[in-house]
Amino acid sequence: MAEWIFLDHYARTRPSKKLIEEMGRLQLQHWMELGEKKGAVKQELCEAIGAQDHSLYLSSGSSEGSFQVLFAHYADSIRESGRTHILTLETECSPIAKTIKTLEKFEVKGKALPVNAQGQLTRQALTEAVRPRSSMLSFSLAHPLTGVIQPAADLIEVCREHEIRVHLDIGSALGKFAFWTCLFDADFFTFDGALLHLPEGIGGITVKEGGLTPTLRKTLKEGSLAQVSGLLLGVQAAQEQIDHYAMEVARLRDIFEEKMSSLAATLFFQEVDRLANCSVIAFEGVHSEQLLFHLERKGVFATTGEGALAHVMKACGVRGSLAHAAVSFILSDETTEEEVLRTCAVIEEVLKEELAHVL
Prior knowledge:
alpha/beta
């Protein structure tokens, strides 16, 4: 069998040997934890993403980062103010959605706001949903499965008008398109090193100046110099790939979608700003799990985000059977044209040989 084709970069990317070796070198060289140097690297990392007025802390990834931010908001703000409503999007995947669900055990009221047919939360919808008890909006800048980019600046402006804090996860967006976090007046940013070709288990949380609450002060981790430096290297390497995503990865996605269209696939999110590496398709009558099963047998890996994609599609108004047929193909900067063409050939083969009876 030919080498696997991995188009499931929903939660992780292939770790970079170069980045891992550099992290190891730094760990050996600076094992004494030189605080001054670590502080300088943290500041450089904040500047690299445009968050100069933020302080950086380490997490084990997006799940822990989101939990830390939202739990601290509950402990230090909600319990004092009584503003118990945390807002998010109906399409939001884990870990934000799971954390809010957990906090509902502590009298927090999570409210998942409806999105339009293209998967975006509009300024008007957010304005209409705000209540006196609304205290935080937590969402992802770009959806990890659909690639849909939210109008974050507009949404945050609404939050500022109502004194609502903002947590913005930028993990899926880093390195995929050009943006500066300074354009988004968020209180917290989180991101995951596993999406930056780093090993799983390292991520970042940035806290706006003045936002370090007592709970966060006790629970946030400083991290080692090697971890912080590795995260910086990952961010810098990702940003160097922005043009590659805008030109080459987008070209490969277009090749893929043109071929899928010729096979009578339904293509989604064509008319909205989205990441260049994400393509969501469906074949009428073919359940996503059927398609994934046969593709994986032939060495091609795509994703439904452990079933989350069907929920996302329904939230966008896609009818049930088609929503459950949707599959996300998520390319990376390492994806080649040969892999895309092989994937197209495998899908065509599967449809003709394995799934012809359901089409």
